[in-house]
Amino acid sequence: MDNKENLYQFIAIEGNIGAGKTSLATLIAEERNAKLILEEFEDNSFLPKFYKDPDRFAFPLELSFLAERYQQLKDSLGAKDLFKNFTIADYFINKSLIFSRKTLQSDEFRLYNTLFEIINQSLIKPDLLVYLYANVGNLQSNIRKRGREYEQEIEDNYLEKIQESYFEFIKQQTNLRILIIDTNNLDFVNNKDDYRYISDLIFRDYEIGIHRIKARDEE
Predict the structure, then answer these.
(1) pTM of this structure
(2) What is the CATH number of the domain that holds 145?
(3) Is residue 17 one of the residues assigned to a domain?
(4) Domain with 170 in it
């Protein structure tokens, strides 16, 4: 493996629901011999309940996600793997704050934010944060294709709120490398050229700050 591929020791892939985070992280890990951290959310008993009654189950859902993500990242990032070239995750711990900002009541969020700040101080930050941007129509199409029953009733308005929350977070960051890739005209799961295009973008040398890659047909 050449030096170009060792620029980053920890990469986090982020994006809205249905953006393809897990698919891309898995493909990169397989190709480049990376340690893969995948969010373990399907066993969360609060998730189906939340989509049916968000006002009632938002707070326990967000707390359970925060605890699970923290424990997984703490264990995974703390255990070095000498046989892997770097680590890649399909989420960033700050997604806990990003989602909760839009799902919790103001008093609940204040408490949640206090807890988040306490645990966040002890976690390693990614060398590169990649945000996969897709419009709501494409997100909904991806959600339908993967067929998780509890996701089928997600409304456009909810996806738009989450997208806005991600952008609010990104704009406030001053000490992270953030790469925003417009994926609306890309199919990196089924098209090898599209995957190669995105992979090559990710493994460039970026300075601290926000770097936006427009849709491929706009170049």
Answers:
(1) 0.90
(2) 3.40.50.300
(3) no
(4) 3-11+29-214
* pLDDT tens-place string over residues 174-195: 999 999 999 999 999 999 999 9
Which region holds residue 58: left if phi is over 0, alpha if psi is between -120 and 50, else beta?
alpha
Q: Give a yes or no: residue 24 inside a domain.
A: no
Q: How many domains does the chain have?
A: 1
Spell out the residues 6+ positions from residue 13 whose beta carbon is closer than 8 angstroms to its own: 21, 24, 25, 88, 89, 90, 91, 130, 132
Q: Is 90 a catalytic residue?
A: yes
Domain membership flag for residue 75: yes
Domain contains 49 = yes
Catalytic pick from 90, 200, 205, 217?
Answer: 90
198-207 contact pairs (CB < 8 A, 24+): 198/24, 199/27, 199/28, 199/31, 202/11, 202/28, 202/128, 202/130, 203/4, 203/5, 203/7, 203/8, 204/7, 205/4, 205/7, 206/128, 206/177, 206/179, 207/177
